[in-house]
Amino acid sequence: MEPIVIDGSLLEGGGQTLRISSALSAILGVPIRIHSIRAGRSTPGLRPQHLTGLNLIKDLTNGSMEGGSIGSTEITLRPGQIGGGEFSVDTKTAGSITLIIQAVLPCLLFAGKRSVIKMKGGTNVDMAPPIDYLTDIFSSFAKKFGAHFSCKLIRRGFYPKGGGEVDLTVEPVKQLSCVTLDQPQTIKCVHGISFVAGTIPIRVANEMASSATSKIQNSLGKIPVRIDQYKDDKAFGNGTAIILSCETTDGMLLGGTGLGKPRSPANQVGQEAADELIESCSRKVCLDQYAQDQVIIFMALAGGTSRVLVGPLSLHTRTAIHVTSQLTGVKFEVIDLKTQPETFIIECKGMGIVNTRL
User: Fold this and answer.
1) How far apart are CA 74 and CA 66, in angstroms?
2) Residue 346's closest CA among 307, 300, 288?
3) For residues 193 and 198, what is the distance between their CA atoms, to the nearest angstrom?
4) 129 preceded by a cis bond (ω within 30 of 0)
5) For 10-69, what is each residue's pLDDT tens digit?
6) Which residue in 65, 215, 343, 346 is a FRET match for 187, CA 20 to 30 A apart?
7) Where do runs of H (alpha helix) occur along 118-165?
8) Rounded Cα distance, 113 and 306, in Å
9) What angle (nearest 5°) sits at the alpha carbon of residue 231, between those of residues 228 and 232?
């Protein structure tokens, strides 16, 4: 079979195209060729994180890949059948474990048996959702599709060395269910964590939490806010982060995150996390900016029609829709809700893929 050709430079032009296309290649059993990989980036081509994810999908399916090397701008992936089982991967850098999970999770749902992946890399790094977002927020959306997974955080790892460890466990499904998450949400409460690691003093965690709490209550009213602060003694390296979660009266979860960087004031990091949360809460959406692109592949694979209420479509989401439509043939409709500025319904009638390996 001739590979389906995908232009890696379109739209987001980064790792999103790799993650979505390689996952769908494995699930649908179709070969793909991706060219112009990360063409718009300052360092084009595959980085360790991307190559680790691609190699894992190749191994999961007992497939083959051409062009699999650091810096490569073109790869051809020919998957076999998704077997499942136990695997281990190590980026040997601070490459994001969360982004690797984004690529392999859909595949593992259609494996023939339960899978456990031992992963090493970065858990809380720039330009990627923290591992905490995946475990505390996105997992709740995955369950609504009938997808169950768990991430056991062994040790956090930060830029530049990584060194974090996570054990991912995924139960396969017969078929994903469609979801209807299209009703405006009312805020119930906010909770979260603010932590430091390494040589950074606990007062930094306290300052991040305090500034986030003030910003949230000034913007959203005197809703209950609880942010636990602590020092992570198991982490590898120095790092600070704050992860917030807003629970709605319908049980939806919306997230906001902040990552400490050298010379970034702690109160600024806390406010950045609060701003992300406020952005979603003020629009009363069901999915935040991090979840909206991740559910696209689930919507396409599920049986039935899914509808989700979101804010402005991110470039990652537009990329996910483009690549998913190209490989699956499903249609996504984006409905502009005139009653609320920059609020949309994404609707999709899924393929209803059945896992024949179970």
Assistant:
1) 8
2) 307
3) 17
4) no
5) 999 889 999 999 999 999 999 999 999 998 788 899 999 999 999 999 999 999 999 999
6) 346
7) 131-133, 139-144
8) 26
9) 110
pTM above 0.90, yes or no: yes
Indicate the helix (H) or strand (E) that contains 143. helix 139-144
Identified catalytic residue from 35, 191, 316, 322: 316
Q: Which amino acid is at 246?
A: C
Tokens of residue 13, six digits: 């032009």
Identity (one letter) of the amino acid at 267? Answer: N
Angle (CA) 245 248 250, round 5°: 135
- Segment 284-290 shows an average pLDDT of 96
Say if strands 75-78 and 148-155 run parallel, antiparallel, or are unpaired. unpaired
Sign of CA dihedral 289, 259, 12, 65: negative
Residues 6+ apart with CB under 8 A from 202: 196, 229, 230, 231
**Position of tokens 């051809």?**
76
Say how many residues make up the chain. 358
Residue 50 annotated among the catalytic residues of the structure: no
Pair of tokens at residue 23: 């996952």
